[in-house]
Amino acid sequence: MDKIKISNLEVYCHHGVFAEENVLGQKFLVSAVLYTEIEEAAFEDDISKSINYGEVCHYIKELMEKYTFKLLESVAECLASRILMRFPLAKRIKLEIKKPWAPIMLPIETVSVEIEREWHTAYLSIGSNLGDKKDNLDQAIALLNADEYSKVTKISEYITTEPVGGVEQDDFLNAALEVKTLRSPKRLLEIIGVIERQLKRERKVHWGPRTIDLDIIFYDDIVMDTKELTIPHPEMEKRGFVLKPLLEIAPKSIHPIFKKTVVQLLDELDD
């Protein structure tokens, strides 16, 4: 991927742990590498098809002067995410913030924090079988879109499916979502938990009825297994209510463990 680089942009602002830093301020140096595709802009010689690095520099200055943080880590996180949201042609950013006047009472050239952030693609399964099922799904999608770090980019058709697990209950309304997000899997799971609580999801019976159910099925090609979260979602390959909606919006997505597409997984399930 092509790169646009900004090196050592000088900004005077008021970040730091000590009160004096917040009052008096000091110099910071910001460097950024923006990963994008420049071929179209280059052939057409058109700045609107590329990232205007002048606008990026002024936006960095604006953000650093607008907010006050104690930690360089917080400054870097704010800048990286805001730049990616403000400039949609930037797919990924590598950002370094240097603090040459760091008050550590020792001779030092500079200290810095360097991070990389990018847009990720997650696929979610969503379902409801209590109350107004369609409204529950619509509300959950709206709440996901309300999160500034995530945006729903594809929604499958809502389909009716029979419940599984042996608990007598009403049929489900299910769908699949494609979500572009700056959140890590852990942070995305936290937002899902907030949404489920807002829509009064109760976990009284395993496999029981619920107003809303949101699960992360894929997140890029990540494989992870922690106490809180497993990706890809366990046994998704055995669940038609997951695979059928997912087929509509991501038929060629590959299961990172089985190395099979959604089409292949659904064909095997049908067989």
Automatic annotation (TrEMBL):
PROSITE patterns: HPPK. It comes from the Bacteria. One of its GO terms (molecular function) is kinase activity. Its EC number is 4.1.2.25, 2.7.6.3. Pathway: Cofactor biosynthesis; tetrahydrofolate biosynthesis; 2-amino-4-hydroxy-6-hydroxymethyl-7,8-dihydropteridine diphosphate from 7,8-dihydroneopterin triphosphate: step 4/4; Cofactor biosynthesis; tetrahydrofolate biosynthesis; 2-amino-4-hydroxy-6-hydroxymethyl-7,8-dihydropteridine diphosphate from 7,8-dihydroneopterin triphosphate: step 3/4. Keywords: ATP-binding, Folate biosynthesis, Kinase, Lyase, Nucleotide-binding, Transferase. GO terms for biological process: folic acid biosynthetic process; tetrahydrofolate biosynthetic process. It catalyses: 7,8-dihydroneopterin = 6-hydroxymethyl-7,8-dihydropterin + glycolaldehyde; 6-hydroxymethyl-7,8-dihydropterin + ATP = (7,8-dihydropterin-6-yl)methyl diphosphate + AMP + H(+). Residues 206-217 form the 7,8-dihydro-6-hydroxymethylpterin-pyrophosphokinase domain. Catalyzes the conversion of 7,8-dihydroneopterin to 6-hydroxymethyl-7,8-dihydropterin. Belongs to the DHNA family. In the N-terminal section; belongs to the DHNA family. This is Bifunctional folate synthesis protein.
